[in-house]
């Protein structure tokens, strides 16, 4: 894939400065394709504040998506979709008025602005005239005009998965592979004169297999993705590696014994098991819950919530990663935010509204699923920093416990802090050695307590392969997680065995 | 046609003609068959927190979907762009994608004689969900929240209460002559209060009421009070030691088990052998008292169409009632046309259809037939056990049947609900769990498309402290 092409330049907009001639292609897309003008943006913002309010913004979004699927060695499915729309928000104190339209004609945009304006009731306010586009990062370069959609190259990826998974073991009886890709263009204009635009690529490659041996049938899956071109699907993310990972998992399950039940020592492997952090602490630190006092972490800033070996950050600025963003969905630049430092709770993830109401800095965490949704504080890439322990020593230190290197999904109850995450690959540890694979089991814990039992942290920090999706209040956004190998001195394992 | 579409925007757009026109365009472009969907939705939503409006959303959107077939090859596309250009790109996009897919001998639309739509008014749409003025809608949410907040002094905070209303319209047309459409409506009230105990530990729970017409909504007051009652009963929750005990699933958690039976019996999982129910047709898979029905034609007692009722499925086949499990015996897989052909069977008219992609399989009104015991009788028969009111996580593996989920609820001691329980898991395997259903309640109520009475299952492992 072409890379290194700088698309976003610092500019003053719409002032006739020399730089304004190199308008970002993201912005130009909306202006040219939908006939949006700066004058129209100003009119809409004026209409949005026609009944008062503190702030208004317009969020334009245009998404094109393509997906391909191979199943039973046949390319069975191919689909594409396009959608575009604009969400208009008015903030008035703690109140949010919201309206959206999938018709970007001036009259529909003004109508939506008028609807959102109803949240406020006061004299009209004037939005700031003119916009200023801030300088932002370039974490996922997109060639001008978007990626060339070479479907044959994409098909080859899923066909390679199919071949490699079938070749892995004769007990692999079903193979399915899929590739999906989207290009999301956004443009955000605020009544405070803020202006941002971005073009966000995202793709993922998935393998699913079924293994069968006599009467036992099992499943396995693996996937990888991120915000960069096809070249990312090499090395650990290559189709062959994903196929082998999926097949290995399914074959392993054929001989798995029941997972143990009850409290025990648990070792989590590096990478995707970082979902522990996402569920145990991440959601509980999103500012909306804390502003309202509804999180188990409310009021705990400056207090110990983990062992001193634990430092957790949320970082939206990592190049090419699934959870990364140049700007959040309110147009604010993303950043690296320390959530827990040496076990002490440091800060919350905020958006414009919560930062203003709580009197804290905006961490650039305002995200939304689409133009139809109101933004709220969300995570980006959440991970624990590496420690100093040897992963082998961590395993060796466990007399009887569970080693879990891979997981499915998780969930948390923000208010009482209880969270679960489900192991999809796990083994018994007996006398310091990894022994029998066990069947799927859910692990459960209490967010503000669980990380206090982290007694060892490996030096092997790894980020996940880029397939995480986080749901909150009905809105899904792509995220990343990561972690080194860690040992928890106690955690409840939800199996059926002894 | 496309110019007319653009101009007709403000007036009532004729979705049936639009869908038929798109199908005709696809056929003209060379498709041997085509199928188009047009969908439209409007929503109003207000959330009130601590007496103040927190968010208010009012909007609508619409979209087009097209699936084309070139013999045994297929592809699909969707768009939100209803302009002439948008529609042309939709058709061209789907046609271009069909060139890269390969022949699948089982792909295709249903046979011409199979199409149809249930006759008469199914009572799915009532325009009164939008009849209230904005201020009264806000007051519904306010009333629900204040009823929760004033219920008990331990209710100290709130995640808010909401009133939502929505309407939708869906039209399906294909090149074999089927054109059909219907409208739906929904209104709902919900409340999410928080309670704090003397040690400062917080709990929250929620309750809701939903209906197709305003008259069937429960009062905001009753929703708020029930939400408060559910939140309060979670205070003082403890963990319990790891042990095997009878588990009683309350209706709101039992319904997820019925959903798992449906998924495991659905054709896509079955033909892949990716289900613990694959190959088990006409075999005993559950306790003798267990009967599961999927009825896409059902009218509720108030004479209104059920939450999962529709005149036709996602491929244009008339909705019907299917017995999934009868007295413990697996009677039917749930099939769309593709999976039926894969299995050498007939569709059960359970096709679901999103905008793009191939048709999936979806439930209509899915339920477990009620038994004879009251929930109180079921609990009274248990010396030690867990009454599950909440489940967490995704620990259901339909291939192996392995089941392991986080649970909250109330501890049963000598036949009485004794205290709240949290931070435990319950685990078993669905193959055994379905056989070990030892009691089914008489309390079947449809609060949504999937419903179950109270259910007791023995032999599961609770893991905790």
Would you mind describing this structure in some detail?
The complex is a heterodimer of chains A (498) and B (465). Chain A is built from 10 helices and 24 strands. With 498 residues, chain A is an alpha+beta fold. Chain A has 2 domains: 11-253, PmbA/TldD superfamily (PmbA/TldD fold), CATH 3.30.2290; 261-494, no CATH class. In chain A, the strands form 4 sheets. In chain A, strands 1, 2, 3, 4, 5, 6, 7 and 8 form an 8-stranded mixed beta sheet that branches. In chain A, strands 10, 11, 12, 15, 21, 22 and 23 form a 7-stranded mixed beta sheet that branches. A 5-stranded mixed beta barrel of chain A has the order 9-16-17-19-24. In chain A, α2 (38-48) runs parallel beside α3 (106-117) and α4 (151-168) runs parallel beside α5 (239-254). The longest helix of chain A is centred in the first third of the chain and has 18 residues, at 151-168. Chain A starts with 10 loop residues before the first strand and ends with a strand. With 465 residues, chain B is α+β, with helices and mostly antiparallel strands. Chain B has helices at residues 2-7, 15-28, 84-98, 134-149, 220-232, 251-264, 267-271, 337-343, 375-380, 430-435; strands at residues 33-49, 52-70, 73-79, 155-174, 179-196, 202-204, 207-211, 243-244, 247-249, 292-295, 321-326, 329-330, 351-352, 360-361, 365-368, 384-392, 402-413, 416-429, 437-440, 450-451, 455-457, 461-463. Chain B has an 8-stranded mixed beta sheet with strand order 8-22-18-17-16-9-21-19. In chain B, strands 1, 2, 3, 4, 5, 6 and 7 form a 7-stranded antiparallel beta sheet that branches. In chain B, strands 12-11-10-15-20 form a 5-stranded mixed beta sheet, covered by helices on one side. In chain B, β1 (33-49) and β2 form a beta hairpin. At the A-B interface, β3, β4, α4, β8 and β9 of A face β2, β3, α3, β6 and β17 of B.
């Amino acid at each position: 894939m072409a890379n290194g092409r700088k698309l976003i330049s610092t500019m003053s907009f719409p002032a006739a400065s020399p730089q304004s001639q190199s308008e970002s292609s993201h912005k130009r897309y909306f202006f040219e394709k939908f006939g949006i003008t700066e004058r129209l943006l100003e009119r809409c913002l004026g209409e949005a504040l026609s009944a008062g309010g503190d702030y208004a913004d317009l969020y334009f979004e245009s998404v094109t998506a393509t997906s391909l699927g191979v199943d039973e060695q046949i390319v069975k499915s191919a689909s594409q979709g396009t959608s575009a729309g604009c969400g208009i928000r008015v903030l008035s104190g703690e109140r949010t008025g919201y309206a959206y339209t999938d018709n970007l004609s001036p009259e529909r945009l003004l109508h939506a602005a008028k609807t959102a304006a109803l949240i406020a009731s006061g004299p009209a306010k004037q939005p700031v005239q003119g916009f200023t586009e801030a300088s932002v990062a370039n974490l996922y370069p997109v060639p001008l005009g978007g990626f060339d959609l070479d479907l044959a190259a994409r098909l080859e990826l899923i066909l390679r998965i199919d071949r490699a998974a079938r070749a892995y073991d004769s007990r692999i009886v079903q193979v399915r592979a899929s590739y999906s890709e989207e290009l999301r263009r956004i443009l955000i204009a605020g009544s405070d004169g803020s202006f941002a635009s971005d073009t966000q690529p995202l793709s993922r490659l998935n393998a699913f297999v079924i293994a069968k041996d006599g009467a036992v049938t099992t499943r396995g899956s693996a996937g990888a993705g991120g915000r960069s071109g096809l070249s990312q699907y090499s090395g650990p993310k290559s189709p062959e590696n994903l196929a082998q990972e999926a097949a290995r998992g399914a074959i392993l399950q054929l001989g798995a014994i029941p997972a143990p039940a009850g409290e025990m020592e648990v070792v989590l492997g590096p990478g995707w098991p970082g979902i522990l952090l996402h569920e145990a602490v991440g959601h509980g630190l999103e500012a909306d819950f804390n502003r309202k006092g509804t999180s188990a972490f409310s009021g705990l800033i400056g207090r110990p919530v983990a062992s001193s070996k634990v430092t957790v950050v949320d970082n939206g600025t990592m190049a090419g990663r699934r959870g990364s963003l140049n700007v959040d969905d309110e147009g604010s630049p993303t950043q690296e935010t320390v959530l827990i430092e040496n076990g002490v709770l440091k800060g919350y993830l905020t958006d414009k509204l919560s930062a203003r109401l709580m009197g804290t800095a905006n961490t650039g965490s305002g995200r939304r699923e689409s133009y139809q949704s109101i933004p709220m504080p969300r995570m980006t890439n959440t991970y624990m920093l590496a420690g100093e322990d040897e992963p082998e020593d961590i395993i060796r230190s466990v007399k009887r416990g569970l080693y879990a290197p891979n997981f499915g999904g998780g969930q948390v109850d923000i208010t009482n802090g209880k969270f679960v995450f489900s192991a999809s690959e796990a083994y018994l540890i007996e006398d310091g050695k990894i022994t029998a694979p066990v069947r799927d089991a859910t692990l459960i814990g209490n967010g503000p307590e669980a990380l206090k039992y982290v007694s060892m942290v490996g030096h092997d920090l790894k980020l996940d392969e880029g397939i995480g999706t986080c749901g909150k209040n009905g809105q899904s956004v792509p995220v990343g997680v990561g972690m080194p190998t860690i040992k928890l001195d106690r955690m409840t394992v939800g199996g059926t065995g002894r | 046609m496309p110019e007319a579409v653009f101009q007709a925007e403000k007036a009532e757009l004729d979705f049936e003609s639009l869908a038929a026109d798109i199908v005709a365009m696809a056929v003209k472009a060379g498709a041997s068959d085509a199928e188009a969907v047009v969908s439209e939705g409007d929503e109003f939503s207000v959330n009130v927190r601590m007496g103040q409006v927190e968010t208010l959303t009012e909007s609508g959107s619409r979209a087009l979907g097209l699936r084309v077939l070139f013999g045994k090859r297929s592809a699909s596309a969707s768009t939100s762009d209803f302009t002439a250009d948008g529609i042309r790109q939709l058709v061209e996009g789907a046609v271009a994608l069909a060139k890269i897919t390969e022949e699948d001998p089982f792909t295709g639309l249903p046979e011409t004689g199979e199409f149809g739509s249930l006759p008469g008014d199914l009572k799915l749409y009532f325009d009164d969900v939008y009849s209230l003025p904005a201020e009264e809608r806000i007051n519904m949410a306010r009333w629900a929240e204040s009823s929760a907040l004033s219920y008990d002094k331990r209710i100290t905070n709130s995640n808010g209460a909401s009133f939502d209303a929505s309407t939708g319209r869906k039209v399906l047309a294909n090149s074999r002559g089927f054109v059909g459409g219907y409208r739906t409506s929904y209104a709902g009230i919900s409340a999410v209060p928080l309670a704090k105990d003397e040690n400062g530990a917080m709990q929250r729970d929620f309750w809701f009421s939903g209906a197709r017409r305003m008259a069937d909504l429960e009062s905001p007051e009753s929703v708020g009070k029930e939400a408060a009652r559910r939140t309060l009963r979670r205070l003082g929750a403890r963990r319990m030691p790891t042990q095997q005990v009878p588990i009683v699933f309350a209706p709101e958690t039992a319904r997820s088990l019925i959903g798992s039976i449906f998924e495991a019996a659905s054709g896509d999982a079955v033909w892949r052998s990716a289900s613990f129910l694959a190959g088990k047709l006409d075999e005993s898979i559950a306790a003798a008292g267990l009967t599961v029905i999927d009825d896409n034609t059902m009218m509720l007692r108030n004479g209104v169409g059920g939450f999962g009722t529709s005149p036709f499925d996602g491929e244009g086949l008339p909705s019907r009632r299917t017995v999934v499990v009868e007295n413990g015996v697996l009677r039917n897989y749930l099939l769309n046309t593709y999976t039926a052909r894969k299995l050498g069977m007939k569709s059960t008219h359970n096709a679901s259809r999103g905008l793009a992609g191939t048709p999936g399989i979806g439930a209509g009104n899915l339920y477990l037939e009620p038994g004879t015991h009251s929930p109180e009788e079921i609990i009274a028969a248990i010396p030690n056990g867990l009454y599950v009111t909440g489940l967490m996580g995704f620990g259901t593996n339909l291939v192996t049947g392995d089941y392991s989920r986080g649970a909250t609820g109330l501890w049963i001691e000598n036949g009485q609900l004794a205290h709240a329980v949290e931070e435990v898991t319950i685990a078993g395997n669905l193959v055994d769990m379905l056989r070990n259903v030892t009691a089914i309640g008489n309390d079947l109520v449809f609060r949504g498309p999937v419903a179950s009475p109270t259910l007791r299952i023995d032999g599961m492992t609770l893991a905790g402290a």
